[in-house]
Amino acid sequence: MEIDPGESNRNAQKRLLEEIVATPAILFFPASTVVELNEICQALGYTPEQLLVEALKRQIGYWEEFYAYVRTAPENLEDFIWPEDPIFCLACVAAVHFIKSFTLCAHDPIAFAELKERAPAEWSFCSLEEKDQIDPADWWKESD
Known about the structure:
The chain has 144 residues and is mainly alpha-helical. The protein has one domain (27-129). It is built from 7 helices and 2 strands. It has a two-stranded parallel sheet. The longest helix is centred in the C-terminal third of the chain and has 22 residues, at 86-107. It is globular.
């Protein structure tokens, strides 16, 4: 992303965040949550992207509490307990993805270009157990 020298820093950050949010990704969850999210998509006739938007909209009423929850990771990641509500899990994982991507890309324009280049064709859910089996070179298979 090129920054216009006349553009304010806040506007540039907003534009970067909008581009990150618009860039599809594979979001990882426990296998049971992936099954639930896919079932919800099928029942509602939603794409994963549409469900992601709905999940984030549900957090608007208490955004500050939600953001604080997302930003507060346990000291030991093995102590993390996944919330039972799959929609809340989706909102949390998406928010963490956006925060990490923004932090990386705001300080490294090359990382932003790579993020966009490696992005899958559409949003999807995958189990954590399968995460290590995904070859980044197979990004194009994700849309099948």
